[in-house]
Design goal:
The structure is a single chain. This protein is mainly alpha-helical. The chain has one domain. Helices cover 80% and strands 0% of the residues. It contains six helices and no strands. The longest helix has 27 residues. The chain starts with a helix and ends with a helix. The model has no long low-confidence stretch (mean pLDDT 94).
């Protein structure tokens, strides 16, 4: 189930929205803007907001399933990570209504997913953490391209 959620939020939904925006609505936006708009909204916004809610209300999932930590003392730290994810997620979600928010959200998304992905490399990983590692680094690359493209004015 985790893999499906990651695939849909971080790949399928953004790509479908890009195609619909470009062809069904005949958007005149360039590819960088379309990729930025939809990957920031889904992968940074919705993905981190949903993850944050789960970490706040069900911290045991992240602690035990991803990091294999059984100590209940870790739950408070997972919840604080959830607060950060909700905050970043809100930034990504808001970017859908204001194009000027895409660059800041892409930079924050690049930093968060890039550093988290690099951190996962050092861990002895299970299947779930491998999915997290690959998706984090993949989105970090997309966010870097979007951030550079937006900063350079496409």
């Amino acid at each position: 189930m985790y893999l499906l959620v990651i695939l849909f939020l971080m790949l399928v939904f953004p790509v479908v929205c890009i195609l619909v925006d470009a062809f069904a609505f005949a958007s005149h936006a360039d590819l960088v803007t379309l990729v930025g708009r939809w990957f920031v909204f889904w992968a940074v916004g919705v993905r981190l907001f949903v993850a944050g809610l789960r970490q706040v209300f069900q911290p045991r999932f992240t602690a035990e399933t991803i990091f294999e930590i059984k100590d209940s003392k870790s739950l408070v730290f997972v919840q604080e990570l959830g607060f950060a994810n909700i905050a970043i997620g809100v930034l990504g979600i808001i970017s859908i209504v204001s194009e000027s928010w895409i660059l800041p959200a892409a930079i924050v998304g690049f930093l968060f997913f890039g550093m988290a992905g690099i951190r996962h490399i050092a861990n002895k990983r299970n299947r779930t953490e491998n999915i997290t590692l690959v998706s984090n680094l993949g989105i970090a690359v997309v966010m870097a391209v979007v951030a550079v493209g937006e900063a350079l004015g496409r």
